[in-house]
C-alpha cells in the first residue's frame, strides 16, 4: 500500500484524513518496524501507555491486519500503520517524510524461525540483514539517531557456561537466523563507530511467551507454529492432534531443552525503558542488555506448568531433536536490573495462563 496521510479503522494508511486522531499528534513519535507482529504489537501498547506515539511499519508477511483492531480496542485509538517492506528504501523514506518528528526507532522486523532459516537461509539474510541496512541508510537522512534493536540470545551460540551475561563470548551461530542477529549486531557496532551521533541499544531476547491481559493481542502464528507455547495452546484447543517435544537426550536434568521464558508484556516494557534511555541521552554509542527472567525451564517443565495453570491435559510425544536448537540457555539479568532498572514481574504459570486465555479468545 502506498504511503498516505491518514488511516482507516485499523490504522492502515488511507486517504481519509478525518480518521486520524488528534490525540496521537502531540506525542513523541517512535517508529516501530514489525509493529503488527507478536512482540511489536505489545511494545506498541506499552509505548502508547507510556506517553509515546507509536508509528507502525509492517508488510504483514508474518502478521495479520486483525492485530490492528486489537490494538485499537486496547488503546481506544487507531495507531498509524504503513503497509510496506522496511527493506524498501523508497517506501521507508516516504514514511519518515509523512511522519515528521520521529525521535527514535524500535526495529523488530525480521524472520525468526530457526528451523526455517536452516532450510531457507537466503530468505533470512535478505530480510533480516537487508532491512537493517535500509533503515540505517534512511534514518540519518531524517536526523533520527536513536535505535533499539531486537536481537536474540542466539548470538551466544552454544554457551560454555550458564547463565550467559552480556560479556559471554558470542560463538558460531547454530542457525542462519542466529547468524543474521550476529551480523546485525556487528553492523550496528561498525556503524556507530563511523557515526558518533548514532545511539543504539541491543536487547538480546530470550523466549517471549504469553499475551496481553485483555486477550486482544497475542502470538498469532501463520500456519504451523514454530514456537513451543502456541503449539501447546493449539494442542490443548484441539487444533493440533499432539505436541511434539523435539529431543529428550540433551544434557539437561530431564533431557529436554532449557530456555528462559519471559512474558511478552515484560519484554515490551523493556523496550520502553530502552527508548527512554536513548532519548534522555544517557547511553553510550552501543549498549547491550540481556532481557529475560534469569531462570531456565525445560520444555517438559513448561508442559507440566501449563497443565497445572489451565487444567488442560496435553497429548505429547517425544520426537527427534531439531537442527539448530541449543541444548540450554538462560540469562544473567544483573546488568539490565542495575543499569536499566528493569525486572520481569510475571511468573511462568501466569504467562502460560495468559497464552491459554488468548487461544480461547481466537
Automatic annotation (TrEMBL):
<keyword id="KW-0119">Carbohydrate metabolism</keyword>
<comment type="similarity">
    <text>Belongs to the NAD(P)-dependent epimerase/dehydratase family.</text>
</comment>
<dbReference type="Pfam" id="PF01370">
    <property type="entry name" value="Epimerase"/>
</dbReference>
<keyword id="KW-0299">Galactose metabolism</keyword>
<keyword id="KW-0520">NAD</keyword>
<comment type="subunit">
    <text>Homodimer.</text>
</comment>
<keyword id="KW-0413">Isomerase</keyword>
<feature type="domain" description="NAD-dependent epimerase/dehydratase">
    <location>
        <begin position="30"/>
        <end position="292"/>
    </location>
</feature>
<dbReference type="InterPro" id="IPR001509">
    <property type="entry name" value="Epimerase_deHydtase"/>
</dbReference>
<comment type="pathway">
    <text>Carbohydrate metabolism; galactose metabolism.</text>
</comment>
<dbReference type="InterPro" id="IPR036291">
    <property type="entry name" value="NAD(P)-bd_dom_sf"/>
</dbReference>
<dbReference type="InterPro" id="IPR005886">
    <property type="entry name" value="UDP_G4E"/>
</dbReference>
<protein>
    <recommendedName>
        <fullName>UDP-glucose 4-epimerase</fullName>
        <ecNumber>5.1.3.2</ecNumber>
    </recommendedName>
</protein>
